[in-house]
Amino acid sequence: HLARRMISLAGFEPEKDIRIEYTGLRPGEKLYEEVLSNKENTEPTLHDRIRIAKVREYDYREACEVAEELETLSRKIEIPDMVRLMKKTVPEFKSKNSRFEVYDK
Which residue range(s) make up the domain with 82? Predict the structure, then answer.
């Protein structure tokens, strides 16, 4: 539905001007996004259905060092080391439907 709508909004006709191909889920793609809804990861507000995400604070200098290291690794195309560093920096992130699941703790 989304593809058809976008094609139409661009002034084309679906399946005539642009063919829609169903490819299925690709490695690393998700069918949904996680929503922060549990009380452990959020703080209440005055409205009972609105909550504020608890966000971890990073030291700016350390974050810059990690960003520089990620850039260095990416330029060398050292993917496994990049993924390990990203997962170390953001340990909550878990890969799903991805070859990088092996780096999850």
Answer: 2-103
